[in-house]
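Exercise 3.2. Students should predict the tertiary structure of the chain below and write it as structure tokens, then compare their answer with the key that follows.

Predict this chain's 3D structure.
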Amino acid sequence: MIDFSSKPLFLAPLAGFSDLPLRTLAKRFGCDCTISEMISSNALVYEHDKTLSMIEKSPLESPYIIQIAGSQKDIIAKAVDILNEFDGIDGIDLNCGCPVPKVVKQNAGSALLNDSKLLCTLVETIKNRSNKRYTSVKIRLGFNTKMAHEIAQDLANAGADFICVHGRTRAGGYSALVDYEAIAMVKSSTNIPVIANGDININNYKEVLKITNCDGLMIGRASIGSPWIFQEIKNNQSISPYEKKEIVKEHFELMLKTYGKHAISIFRKHLHEYSKGISGASEFRSSVNQIQSIDMMKEQIEQFFDPCKAIS
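Answer key:
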């Protein structure tokens, strides 16, 4: 279902952002594969009903992959058993890249890069229990040092069908320069597809593919406020200011459908990104931060994103 020969584009799992509404828009604009927000395997097992809403997908989402995090083999196995009950999920991805301290303290996320034996055991567990088409792993270059190229083939041998590599170590957080050459080393060290991730945008994606020789790209933060980036990359097709306004309006409607009135507060961070580059953006952000009414939010969006205001 994923044609790696065509250099597919993935939407990165972004906590608090890559929810159902954003994934729906990304698919509409040509994203080849969407991935859920990171889901704790513990939460999936012990807070089953509460967590299931994170699995919900759009009819557009195919292929669709669920990303789980955890470090306990038995909990990971139970989480896979739960996911096996649901149709419409095409793969399970193990998060081995999250740098957040509360995740690392549980020996999950990027902490697993310090224990390659456990990491491979968890991948084997997912592969052997899953009834989904794909088992994948999202990693960083390492925890403190760059060593991902040393374990890439081990992950393949453990059952990973493809690997996504974020081009920073855990120590590098989200601010260190992305090392695309190091991603290229991972690519050259294994025989399964490798997806490049980290600060990829409309201006550098060609260079990233050239440097890394990877089989696809995963785009994260560049899609926030620009979910049409997949269309821009694939078709060299930008959007007009009028189209942008309609996309923002559609995004808010999708948020309302998903979250109800709570969408007002959640959508503010998206509006902060959508408003960049438009005259009066600072005042607009301050205004929407105070709005509590759905109708007032719609009115503000309609007025601010009027095509006559756009400078690009």
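Discussion points: Strands lie at 9-11, 33-35, 39-40, 64-69, 91-96, 134-140, 162-166, 194-197, 216-219. The two ends are 37 Å apart (CA to CA).
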